[in-house]
Specification:
Length: 223
């Protein structure tokens, strides 16, 4: 019989997500960003000392502080709802009723199983039912949900759900094609493979609309 630790290792090594939302505690924002940075700094110092690193060396003495700031303010900044971009929408005055596709949006995220990078591109589309959203806002939504410990399936769903809520329509689709460094640089060490996930809402569940979207993006992603 497997112990809990073995089960959790197996889930992480096989990149299996267990939660449809990011698993945050209720007290996640009870302390300030500065307090989090100070706490993480001490933890990184402990990790580096345990690994045998000399923290008096000029090259590495600032690493704990740099890593702590990077975690809180950059690569995991999307955990904080205060950083959520305002998804302003506007009336579709020009009555454009066809598919709008924003492709090749850069994705920099972090795998929540090994805290290694996920690097790829997102392709997002919607069909207006009376509202439109600024193109840069689509990029910002992708960036916001990427800046968390993530699994790619959840990230894809979150992008679609956020745009559906902002636009007031189910007619939203997203495809992400990304490399996972936890696969490419460790374990199986397969540097060529990438992972493709998709979420199709509303009219995009129709095979013809889905095919049109996929023809637009062609999944010829280059890394």
């Amino acid at each position: 019989m497997k112990h809990n630790e073995e089960i959790h290792d197996e889930i992480g090594d096989n990149h299996i997500g267990s939660c449809a939302t990011n698993p945050l505690r209720e007290d996640a924002f009870d302390i300030t960003d500065d307090e989090k940075i100070e706490s993480i700094k001490k933890d990184v110092e402990s990790i580096l000392r345990t690994l045998g690193m000399d923290l008096t060396d000029d090259s590495i003495k600032g690493t704990p502080n740099r890593v702590a700031k990077m975690f809180v303010k950059e690569i995991f900044g999307g955990l904080n709802p205060a950083r959520k971009p305002k998804a302003s929408t506007f009336d579709n005055n020009y009555k454009y009723g066809e598919m709008l596709v924003e492709k090749n949006i850069i994705v920099y995220s972090t795998c929540e199983h090994h805290l290694l990078p996920i690097i790829g591109r997102a392709h997002v589309a919607y069909i207006s039912n009376g509202r439109v959203i600024g193109l840069s806002k689509m990029n910002r939504i992708v960036e916001y949900y990427s800046k968390r410990p993530q699994v790619q399936e959840r990230l894809t769903m979150q992008i679609v759900q956020e745009l559906q809520n902002a636009l007031g329509t189910k007619d939203v689709a997203c495809v992400i094609d990304a490399k996972h460094l936890c696969v490419n640089s460790r374990g199986i060490s397969d540097i060529e493979s990438s992972t493709v996930t998709s979420e199709f809402g509303g009219k995009f569940k129709d095979p013809q609309a889905r095919r049109e979207f996929l023809d637009y993006i062609k999944l010829e992603t280059k890394f």
